Amino acid sequence: MLLAASTQRTIGFVILAIVFLGGLLYILTNIRSARDEVGSEIELASNRRPYLSDEELEGKKLDMALGGSLLLLTIVAITLPLYWLGEPGRHEGRDLDTWRIFGNRGEEIYVAGAQCVNCHGPDGAGGVVSTALTSDTGEFIAQVNWKAPALNTVLSRHTEDEVLHTLNYGRNGVMPAWGRAGGGPLTDQQLEEIIFYLRRVQIDEEQIRSEVAGGVDAGARQLILATSTAGWAADLRDAEADKAETAQAVRLLARADFDFSCSADIDACVADEQAGQLVTELTAAAQGPLDAAVADWWADVEAAKATAADMALADDPSLGEEGREQDLRFAALEILSTPNAFSGQAAYLQYGEILFTNTAANGTYSCARCHTYGWSFDATAEMTVEANGRDGAVLDEYVQGAGFFGRSLVGGSTVTQFETAASQVDFITRGQSIGQTYGRGGSGGNGQMPGFGPTTESSPVGPGMGGGSGIEFSYPGLLTDEQIDAIVAFERTL
431 by DSSP, 3-state: which? Predict the structure, then answer.
């Protein structure tokens, strides 16, 4: 349509030029053919000037005038419909140009204006921000590095109205309010321009699946390294513990001497280097057995799913009939969501926990980022006075799902809120909508719980858009149905 608009505009300009040049030629011809004045008057009076005869006026002259008029009427009759046919293209071209300008302005705000890039990374890929951690009474606890989630999938998990709400009012006490409504510096139009930029940087489904799978693989390897009783795993754990001790010894020396620098004549530095070399060697040696252990773990996960399906079919054989695939899926999920339902269930619940705590893209695909206190700033990691004002970790260990920005999921609260595993799957897939409650308790309504399934934005913000415009944007889900099922099983057993 934009090409059509350009073509019609070009034709119009050509026709206009022809008409203008023709008129100019007509005027010049009449001037050059004017009769010389007669008599003694400086300017002969009009009523004394001889003019064309009736034969001349009603002959060739009249034919020329009528022919010229017919030509001009023909031009108008052709150009007006052509111009009208190009009108939709001109409107679309105007909208496309406006959207391009809005996207460019949004990028400028993201990078240089509000400097969102400092926290959320280039192209919204995720990042970290240094922030002060305080107690509920306002006392300083530590300076921590908070994981800012990736925004290149934000429109897969939130509607544009929900994103605007967060931009306006902030989130989690870390994300500041940027809109005028929340006391921030940006206008409504500038917030819309950020939305236009975010549309540009959303990644496709293939990249989403790759990132999630990478996080799950990393989580599975970490789980096996931490729990395996095999000699290679135990040796690597011991070596990593020794490396942590030697590193702490070097930190203590550096704290005592501002100009401290490691060298070969300092025992602590030599021990730390040797410990690091041993960890590197054992890590390389562990890759083969670790790959095999991960493959075995995946086999256990699939076996647990198959066992649950067999148990569901044994209880109700009709679930195996054609067309009842979803009924079988949720019947098996109810079994997987029941604590201690069968031997071998543990691997599947571990899979659900790994998805719950997925570290990919700074926790963009995880649940722990909102539902587990401390997860977003590595609260169980060792901290130092020099870096953040304290020694040791903020927490000894995480209480998964105990609640923080998101509600607590422990103690059977998900089973209380959602009567069936299927209803909880539906909620996690769709997310929480502004103004709409969920669950048996009628909770929610602020739109801050994301949806992890595919979404369609049918009311996009911006000029030429909105409900009724017919413009829609579709975004892939962050998680597959199978992955959401595993998370639900894990949460319902907390």
Answer: coil
What pLDDT shows up at residue 446?
A: 77
Long-range contacts of 380-384 (CB under 8 A, 24+ apart): 382/244, 382/248, 383/142, 383/144, 384/251, 384/255
Q: Which residues does residue 128 pair with via DSSP β-bridges, in sequence order?
A: 147
User: Alpha-carbon distance 249 to 270, whole Å?
Assistant: 11
What pLDDT sits at residue 42? 62
Q: Where are the alpha helices (DSSP H) in 344-455?
A: 346-356, 368-371, 385-388, 413-417, 421-430
Residues 109 and 128 both lie in one domain: yes
pLDDT at residue number 127: 93
Residue 192, domain extent = 95-201
> Tokens representing 402?
């105990």
Are the C-beta atoms of residues 344 and 303 closer than 8 Å to each other?
A: yes
Would you state the pLDDT for residue 436?
84
Give how many domains the chain has, as a whole number. Answer: 3
Residues 165 and 220 occupy one common structural domain: no
Cα distance between residue 273 and residue 260, in whole Å: 16
Domain end marker among 153, 168, 201? 201
How far is 245 from 256, CA to CA, in rounded Å? 17
Distance (Å, rounded) from C-alpha 414 to C-alpha 407? 10
At 25 the pLDDT is 82
pLDDT for 442: 76
171 lies in the same domain as 153: yes
Query: The tokens of 59 are what?
Result: 């002959």
Return the structure tokens found at 359. 């570290």
Instruction: Give the separation between CA 380 and CA 8, rounded to whole angstroms.
Output: 66
Answer yes or no: do 126 and 7 share one domain.
no
Residue 190 near residue 164, CB atoms below 8 Å:
no
Answer yes or no: do 196 and 230 share one domain: no
pLDDT of residue 41: 54
The answer to whether the predicted template modeling score (pTM) of the entire model surpasses 0.85 is: no
Tokens of 442: 């009628």
Residues of the chain scoring pLDDT < 70: 1-9, 32-45, 86, 89-90, 386
Residue 186 lies in a domain: yes
Cβ contact 473:199 at 8 Å: yes
Centre a 10 Å sphere on the Cβ of residue 271 and count the other Cβ atoms it contains.
17
Residues 240 and 41: their CA atoms lie apart, in Å, by 118
Task: Confirm if 166 and 370 have CB atoms less than 8 A apart.
Answer: no
Q: Show the tokens assigned to 311.
A: 């148990």
Which stretch of DSSP H or E encloses residue 374? Answer: none
| pLDDT score of 384 | 75
Q: What is the pLDDT of residue 389?
A: 75
Residue 80, both tokens: 């007006």
In order of 78, 146, 365, 468, the CA distances from 214 in angstroms are 62, 21, 11, 40
pLDDT at 373: 95
252 with 343, same domain: the answer is yes
- Is the same domain home to 244 and 153? no
